[in-house]
Amino acid sequence: MQGDGYDGRISQAGADDIDVSGANVIGRWSHTFYEGSDLTLQFYYDRTHRNIPGTFSEELDTYDVDFHHRFPLGERQDIVWGLGYRLIDDEVGNTPALAFLPSDVSRQWFSGFVQDEIALVKDRVHLTLGTKIEHNDYTGFEFQPSGRLAWKLSEQQTLWSAISRAVRTPSRIDREFFRPGSPPFLLAGGPDFDSEELLAYELGYRVQPLSRLALSLAAWYNDYDNIRSLEQANRPLPFPVVIANGLEGESYGAELTADYRVTDWWRLRAGYTELRIDLRPKPGSTDTTAGSNESHDPERYFSLRSSLDLPGHWELDAAFRYVSRIDNQQVPAYGELDVRLGWQPSPELEFSIAGQNLLHDHHAEFGALANTRGEITRREIERGVFGKIVWRF
User: Fold this and answer.
1) d(CA 140, CA 160)
2) Do 92 and 184 fall into the same domain?
3) Rounded to an integer, what distance in angstroms lies between the CA atom of residue 223 and that of residue 290?
4) Which of 25, 156, 173, 294 is most buried, taking the most CB atoms under 10 A from its CB?
5) Are 141 and 200 part of one and the same domain?
């Protein structure tokens, strides 16, 4: 079992601070029946408080239960299945600026999944088939199947490919968000907003040219449908607009990663990603944003992580990341550093202290700089330090 708490603030130039605080706890029980067969039961609870002066406040409780069971079937199949349940209680304090209607809700998600890994050619070719089935309070049942084929070319090389379907089910913003906080609304949630859909294709290659060095290259193509849009309700008038599913498009990219064990106690991991996204209105859509409200992703990302196992059960981790600018939000590029020092006096107990975003007092990661009236609205992420205690039993 483990738990942690947090208390943070996100700054905004010329405005009051955003107050964010909360705590969470995780309980996990696992049991091994025999080699290759085990089960895990996990419970998670999170309490979050947010207060954005003049905008809204929120008290959010999240309860989550997950059950997983793994077992072999014959000599060539490995089965994993599980069940899940999530409940949220969300209480929002509305303001004249915006509202969630109704302000207080409870929402439930039920889910189940099954996955079968089949050894078509033992120790060489593996086929993995699976699906996830979910029921939510907005759209009912959702099905998310997937398939993956891995071919071990040699002891040092592996080639894989995958295809999967995924969905993003509606959130409170999609259905219950209104601006301003009372009629007449300029922006309204869509009562018929459906799940956003993704069909993903992936191809990858992994090679281990040295005993301590592994390289991976993965490329992907994603096909999107029913992406969130802003539709004009009374054309040709620009307002009100209603949230709907009027966009489609695709994204594609590649990621290169490297894992190098310098010594038995020092490990380096690096990664570089290139990404391109193209979203456009579907026939009949009145959306004029061209997807600028949905594709807020940098085109380039680089990361470097160092992990040191020190004497006396101490650990020192450092992670640097570089994120390129986001053009459609005018978010500048930035580089940041996170550092963590941990001590594990026993297998059951762990203490750690971590510093985040240490290179700058604050930096922007998302959000438009100003609204249509020229008022600064972008909130920036601040430097922070936090401690954590993990107790396993």
Assistant:
1) 33
2) no
3) 16
4) 294
5) no
Spacing of C-alpha 348 from chain mean position: 28
282 belongs to a structural domain? yes
Pairing of strands 157-168, 334-346: unpaired
Asked, for residue 218, whether it belongs to a domain, the answer is yes
Please count the other Cβ atoms lying within 10 Å of the Cβ belonging to residue 96: 10
DSSP-derived letter for residue 16 is P
pLDDT at 293: 78
Distance (Å, whole) CA 343 – CA 295: 40
**Which of 53, 80, 52, 51 has the alpha carbon at shortest distance from 67?**
80
Indicate whether 54 and 101 sit together in one domain. Answer: yes
148-152: long-range contacts at Cβ-Cβ below 8 A with a sequence spacing of 24 or more? Answer: 149/125, 150/125, 150/126, 151/124, 151/125, 152/123, 152/124, 152/125
CATH of the domain at 125: 2.40.160
Are 208 and 241 members of one domain?
Answer: yes
Q: What is the DSSP letter of 154?
A: S
Residue 362 pLDDT more than 50?
Answer: yes
Report if residue 119 sits inside a domain: yes
Per the structure, the complete domain to which residue 164 belongs is given by 153-295
CA distance 391 to 3: 8
Bridge partner residues of 215 (DSSP): 207, 258
Q: What is the DSSP letter of 15?
A: S
Identify any residues that bridge with 80 across adjacent strands, giving them in sequence order: 70, 115
Of 131, 146, 161, the position where a domain reaches its end is: 146
Q: Are strands 187-188 and 241-263 parallel, antiparallel or unpaired?
A: parallel
DSSP 328: G
Assess whether the previous peptide bond of 184 is cis (omega < 30° from 0).
yes
pTM listed for this prediction: 0.83
Final residue before a domain boundary, out of 121, 146, 171? 146
Beta bridge mates, 62:
46, 88
- In one-letter notation, the amino acid at residue 196 is E
- For the stretch 219-246, pLDDT in tens is 999 999 999 999 999 888 889 999 999 9
Same domain, yes or no: 134 and 212: no
Do residues 240 and 130 both lie within one domain?
Answer: no
In a domain, 221, yes or no: yes
